[in-house]
Every structure is written in structure tokens, then in C-alpha cells.
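User: Show me a protein chain along with its predicted structure.
Assistant: Here is one chain, sequence first, then C-alpha cells.
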Amino acid sequence: MENTLGKYRWRVVALLFFATTISYLDRQVIALLKPTLEKEFSWTESDYSNLVMAFQAAYAVGLMIFGGFIDKIGTKLGYAIAVAWWSTAGVLTAFAGSTFSFGVFRSLLGLGEGGNFPAAIKTVAEWFPKKERALATGIFNSGANIGAVAAPLMVPFILATFGWQVAFIITGGVGFIWLIFWWIGYELPARQNKLSKEELLYIQSDNEPDTSHEEPVKWITLLSIRQTWSFIFGKMLTDPIWWFFLYWLPSYFSETFQLDLKKPSLELIVVYTATTFGSIGGGYISGYLIKKGWPVFKARKTAMLSFAIAVVPIVFAQYCTNIWQAVVLISLAAAAHQAWSANIFTTASDMFPKKAVSSVVGLGGMAGSVGGILFPLIVGYLLDTYKSQGNITAGYNIIFILCGGAYLLAWGIMHLFNPRNEQVVI
């Protein structure tokens, strides 16, 4: 059947995948340069936490702004503006001369990157029927993991050969190449002349009305709907865990197991490669259950519960005596997070009409970023406190315990706000 339908929609997913890869490459580079920049700018753990929080605060604002903005002007122009903005900010970071200017450029980066997921999730809703959305989301969301894998390969080489400034210029500049392919290759399905009639009918098989011409739904209306709060709390409680994996995992391996971050790190590559399988596999599992006849919401909830349980073993990282034991536990948790992420994003397009999807994703993403602002406060305090006592590993152990319970708590709250799996009618 796939051969008669055509596969143009998967080309669109490829564009989303590369945009997400570039986004995470741009944000991950500072974690790998952290030991070098700490020495050059005399940063403490709290200074670094403040930079993470500056990014997260701006990212939260960016999600809020771009969510409604993209619903209003459309995915093609909205996504292009977001990528151009964050790529420029990434390049400008090379010219930072103080901790304050780093904070400014990281804030600008976060503001632009706030457009990535609202645009990508809305694009998936426009281009895929519900039974394929989680898989499509899992595929493009795996770009986050590829970006995190590419960074440990690229950045140490660039750092050793050209210096930290060039690392920011190269990683930031890649986004401008993507913009060319996006502008040439993307259109709404109904306007894409390269799309077969059969594939267009398949994309529209859910019989969802075309709302691209309608005004976006106001935030005040969305915030009065309990399904919105289900998504908001699910993101707020789990997004900060992923930020921790991105921003502190390299230094955890360095400080606990003396990993040399000036060389390509196989351990980090293994962790972030595992998350790629989690993202795609997580999207496949719920889609498989739907194709087997499960109701959409039951399939999503069942899959997400299994992923929440899979994160729990990370609490045993405190008992690891060598780095590869820790790699196994953290890889499982990080992969489970990305499987969770592929499905929680898709719940927004499951619950809401297309005209509201980008706005809902923006609100939920903003909530996740607020959690990402608060969690680094806890992380920075714990690590500085235990570092001063000569036992920074104990700080990481407490953080892993918090990570282990976050997803089960989030799943329970999401079920509380939407126990009957009702779709929103606006």
C-alpha cells in the first residue's frame, strides 16, 4: 500500500529531523566546552547553572511566543524565522567575552529554539494521520539524540584544532544551510504539487477539518481546558530531566569517572545513541497498538506508563563502581525519556484540533522550560554543596533519585486531568 501512496510525507519528517538535530547540536556544544570555559571565565557550578537557567527562561518565552505565532502565520514562515534566529545567536556566542555576554547569547539562542517543537509538531499534525503521528514525531525527535551524538564527535576536534570560538561558529552556521532546503521543499499538503492524490487522501483520512484558514485559539481559552493542563504538567515534570542529561551528563562522567572531555567520548555517544532507538521505538510502539485496534488514547497511555517505569532503575546509578555500569542505567533512562517524549508530544495533536496544536505545544513546552529553570537551581545547589565537601558524586546520586520518580508522577497527574481520554472540541 505504501508504494501506491507515495512517501513524500517522510521527506517532510527528514526536514524536521535535521532541524531538531541542529537545534540540539547548538545547545549541547556548551556542555562539552564547559571544562574549558570554566577555566577561561572562572565559572562555578552555580555560574554554569545560571547560564542554563538563562537559556531555559528564554526558551520558555520563545515557546510561548512561537506557539501562537506559528499558528497565526503558518509553519513554513514561522519555522524559517525560528531557525534563522537561533542560528544567528549560536554564531554570535563565539564573540562572548564574559559570563554576562554568554548569558545574553544563550538567552537569544533559547528564544529562537522555542520555535522548533511547536512548528515541528504542527507540521506532523498537518502531514500525518493520527496512527502515524507518534512514529513521525519519534523520528524527528530522534534528531535531538543525533545532535547530542554528533556534538561529542565534532566539538573536541574543533576545540583542539581551532579553539572554542570556532566550535560555536560552525555549529551555529549549519542552520543556514537547512533554511535553503526548507524554503524550497516545504508546503502544506493541499498546496504541494509533488504529492500524489492517494497520499493526500491518506493524510486526510482522519477526516479532521482543515483549520489552516481559521484564527488560532487564544491562550485564555486553552488554559480553561483540563486537557491543556494534562499536557502542561506532563512536560513540566519530565522535560527538566532531559535538560539534566544534556547539560550535566558530560561533567558527571568527567568528575565521577575521570572521563576526558577533550577527546571524543564513546560513553556519551552510547548514551545518546540509545536515546535514538528510544525515540523511534517509542513512537512505533503506540502506533503499532493503534494499528492493532487499540483506541488512540489507551495506546498512548499504556506506552507512556511502560516508559515511565523504565526510567526508575536510574536510582541505582549511585551503586555503580565503573563508568559502563552507569552508562547502561543512564542509557535506559534517557532512551525511555525520548520514547515518552515522542508520545507526550503526540497527545497534543490527539486531543486538540490542528488550529490549536502549536499553541498547546508552546504552552506545554513553556511549562517544561519553567521546570528546566527550577531544576538547575536544585542541581547547582546540590553539586556546589557536595563539591565543597569533596563528595560531588553524592550530589549526583540525589539528582538521579529525583529523575527516577518524575515520570510516574507525571503519568499519574496526566491521567488525573484526562481520565476518560476525551478529545477537545473548540
